Amino acid sequence: MAAHPVSPLAPKSYPDLPPIAGVRFATAEAGIKYKNRTDVLLMAFDEGTVAAGVLTRSATSSAAVELCRENLPGGVARGLVVNSGNSNAFTGQKGRESVRYITRVAAQALGCAPSEVFIAQTGVIGELIDASKFDGKLDEAATRLVDAPWIEPARAIMTTDTFPKLSGAVLEIDGVEVKINGIAKGSGMIAPDMATMLSFVVTDMPIAAPVLQALLSQHVQTTFNAITVDSDTSTSDTLLAFATGKAPVDAINSLDDPRAEIFGAALADVLFELAILTVRDGEGATKQVSIHVEGATTDASAFRIAKAIADSPLVKTAIAGEDANWGRVVMAVGKAGEPADRDKLSIRFGDLVVARNGERAQGYDEAATSAYMKGEELEVTVELGLGSGQATVYTCDLTHGYITINGDYRS
Amino acid sequence: MAAHPVSPLAPKSYPDLPPIAGVRFATAEAGIKYKNRTDVLLMAFDEGTVAAGVLTRSATSSAAVELCRENLPGGVARGLVVNSGNSNAFTGQKGRESVRYITRVAAQALGCAPSEVFIAQTGVIGELIDASKFDGKLDEAATRLVDAPWIEPARAIMTTDTFPKLSGAVLEIDGVEVKINGIAKGSGMIAPDMATMLSFVVTDMPIAAPVLQALLSQHVQTTFNAITVDSDTSTSDTLLAFATGKAPVDAINSLDDPRAEIFGAALADVLFELAILTVRDGEGATKQVSIHVEGATTDASAFRIAKAIADSPLVKTAIAGEDANWGRVVMAVGKAGEPADRDKLSIRFGDLVVARNGERAQGYDEAATSAYMKGEELEVTVELGLGSGQATVYTCDLTHGYITINGDYRS
ipTM of the predicted structure? Predict the structure, then answer.
């Protein structure tokens, strides 16, 4: 399926997510760009399903993103159609018409209103999608709707991803089992401004759309919004959450309901796992890296510094080379444009203190640090010594693989 | 000299810059990091030489930058000492002491006050320089001071540069020949916040220090501040200009002197050529790229959008792959956080219109565009259609060479 070697950070196995009452799906091969693989996902939601979403803030967002933005205030969902291979972004009026056409075809296949259908598209930018490829495909897919296995939709939405990304949580609320299933795709153009390229989460929890939206907006900050592969923000970033409400439990209708926090925590776990999987399938990635910044003047300042480190090509190439080049971390702190005092700065790689108070740490152990850098999961901690602001950003290294994948993507 | 293959964008020959009255120099091998090459430059200025400079705004700037910041207000220079191989940045109190030690050794060798000596250091961050390596070296160098050839100082300051960078201008002021010679080094960690890693410009023009400073600060904006190799801003960025005043012509003592503009234009030419040479020796570069943004709401907004495009790894890898992937340019415009209207956006590669009014241009010629991408110097123009703001940023592509150089720099 993947044109590139599978990421060395791929999980050894995938979770077998359980069916969720109220949602069924089918995938299809529409030949939009890829051959001999599924590239279309159709999801059908039972009546009563509510929707929430977080969309890219890109000033050049895609037609599909625009349509989601239009439909989200309705808060109601009956269908979702997703295709990989063409993002249909920057395709003007014709792009908008093609998106409307596809959602009409989907609505017809599912027997619902077009305004109840959400759409997400991913792939090359600037090429008008051939909407006629959906003719018949969605009708036919609608005859094959099933509630498992979830790996099929996860596969259908992949582009340069080298493995499907799934995460699920089962929690107990009022003694009733409630499920949350999520899928996502990466794996380049990843610096979400509030969502990764595409991710879809479905739960059977009865929950009001505004509450679901609030929880989603809250937890995206420390999950999808805290990852970066290459600092490039997509035109198509879309995170949608759907709640079918089929679990036999009272609905959460307010954030003040104490169950909102419990449900939110489980939702955050799913989002976090999907976000980390996205980083671990970052184009060319061989290392997963967590950048912790502590002691900043504010959390927002800590986040911007962590992002500057995580986005620095020099930091990322050093990590790829298993080089404990903490001087480049110093550089990235310096360029972030945030308050920092060089002479209060300390840096740890894992538990190893490499720099303290503005210079190489006493007892710095090059051999131990080099050994640490050979690991697959690395932690870099920067202590600014200015205040109590903190943040964590998750990223991967920058390797020859990234250049190979992106120097020849369209052809 | 260079550990990496010479950039394919290296000039075929180097200018033979003329001697400038009032400045002499010598280079030496101090073995700071490199073997069998010069790594120290000592410049001696005659009495009456004034200095101006622009230094990094990094919050973690080096000890050498701090010392220049201290000495610049004096406006007087008698000496400059530069070393490659170790930037002595983030080395704490001991780093500051080493810088003071080296400038004292230089002052003694030149017979001047330490406050009249400027220093610049470049190379690895976080390793304390062994200041004793300068003992005797500078004394000995001071016995060999010459006024040519200028390629020697240009070579001594190189780090990962694959070619020396020189530029000169000879202009006539009041019927008198006035000279400006400049040298620079790159070639990674290049996203100057007001200067590239290191650049030194010397003129024999009599000019007051504040005027020289004003002209330097003005012209750095469209030259060194308009280039980026990898978005990473150095801790050591230093641009210094020295005016020996030896040309037999009345001094420029005010910006209102009409000759300030004439001299400034020649200075800008020298800075621009050095900046472009720095881009052309960007680590791993195989293409020189100019990003023009027009029709923005303001010049500053145009600059930020041009910078976002020039720093985008996806744009840079597409260019490396000779792929006319203008969709990634759209993406970068979208992520810049500046006013942009997708449906007014037009993009040209060279003279070829690839996108107009938010979609692929009518008559887009894939074959012609692909042929254009094979060129060594590329121009990307983005027309936003919002106002009259414009800016140009100069960059290079992102290739396997960059990864190779930076994945294994310290070892």
Answer: 0.84
